[in-house]
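Try it yourself: sequence plus S-adenosylmethionine, in.
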Amino acid sequence: MTFANVEEAIRQIEKAMAFSDKFVLTSPDKRCVLQHYLTMKGLSSPASRIFMNILCSKSGTRYLEVGTHTGSSLVAACHKNPLGRAVAIDDWSMDKNSKPKLLENLQFFDREFIRQPELIEAEAFSMDKSKLGEFDVYFYDGCHSADSTEKGLICFWNNLAPVSIVVIDDYSIVRVQQGIIRAIDKLGCKQHLRYAWTLPGGKGFEHLYWGGLAVMVFDK
Ligand SMILES: C[S@@+](CC[C@H](N)C(=O)[O-])C[C@H]1O[C@@H](n2cnc3c(N)ncnc32)[C@H](O)[C@@H]1O
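Structure, out:
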């Protein structure tokens, strides 16, 4: 069990925010980028990568990601972290060419991984999840329609550890907000949602937390 209780999960989020906020608040000319994973091409910002990296830094963290594309968020979560597991799911529906690029990126960062990520090529909502296991940190970055966001939470609910952190990208999009609210309604899990943060981003503000992140702690 990575997070023994809600307070431990909150501490991890606060630690991650402290690092990534510092990056956001530093003027661009004073930023010192020491890690190559912060500059690789991808659909996330350096601040959101730092956030994911620190969020997953607790030893044994089991990380699940839906929507990997060329791997900028996956590499960030795995980079030098002593993860228990890292599982990434994508069906390449957005761009078939992102798969070879992802494999190239994973090979490039291979020596920076303590735990190699497991790739699952599948449609996330319909795939069999009964043997997937439990995860402490779940990042949903698949399709950002309200329906898909809703399914992104509902379909993986049983794969969340008793205390888990769920991060959803593109929170600045109203459809994403609607999807999250609908999922929580349908799951009837409002009482299990213990804390929630939103990190800013979206059109014109991608340099902050890309599309904006919703960060939630669930205690089942
Ligand atoms: C916005 S991109 C992910 C960006 C990535 N997290 C990053 O940081 O670079 C969305 C990805 O989700 C995948 N995707 C969309 N719907 C999916 C589904 N139902 N099942 C599996 N993958 C899906 C797409 O193929 C695409 O690669």
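One thing you can check immediately is this: The domain at 6-219 is CATH 3.40.50.150 (Rossmann fold).
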